[in-house]
Amino acid sequence: MEREGRLVKSAEFSMGEGQSLVIALSSDIGLDRIIIENKDGATQVRAEGHSRFEFDDTKQRPNQCDFLLRNPSRIETFEDYLDGKFWGQFAWDGLFKYQNNARLKRALKAEIKKLACEFERKAARRLNGIFKKQTGKTK
Q1: Fewer CB near the terminus (10 Å): N or C of the chain?
Q2: Three-state DSSP class for 24?
């Protein structure tokens, strides 16, 4: 590991079977953690965040990285925000325990979609009501 004072400039890891490495990017929005696991001798990488992120596995030029994860310049959706808030309540052990439960994730995603639609309908109705009251006009 190469250090500059308390900061790490570069690091290299050798992981045994069953070991994991979490890279937390401490981002309020967007890509906020990369989880690298060695399962049964195969290295698996998972990326999670509060919003969508872009993945690229094509090299643009020789000597460039093989894989690139980055935050796109897009706005976070309300569904992404709710999903991030829900999973953000767990410590790392909870994330490792529950994130692989496909049935749970499908049920949560469906409910988050319903909640987001319900919120958007109510918000539009209330905001249009305020607009009409304050201006005496409809859109």
Answers
A1: C
A2: strand
Is 52 within 8 Å of 60 (Cβ atoms)? no
45 vs 51: CA distance, rounded Å: 18
Which strands sit side by side in the sheet containing 31-39, from one edge to the other? 20-24, 31-39, 42-49
pTM: 0.46
CA torsion through residues 87, 89, 95, 98, sign: negative
Residue 130 C-alpha from the chain's centroid:
34
Per-domain residue ranges of the chain: 2-74
pLDDT tens digits for range 27-83: 666 677 788 888 888 888 888 776 667 777 777 677 777 777 776 665 667 888 898
Residue with tokens 């290299």: 12
Quote the tokens at residue 103. 């049935």
CA distances from 5 to 1, 2, 12, 32, 98 (A): 12, 10, 18, 24, 37
Residue 81's closest CA among 115, 106, 54, 55? Answer: 115
**Amino acid (1-letter code) at residue 39:** K
What is the CA angle 42-29-71, rounded to 5?
60
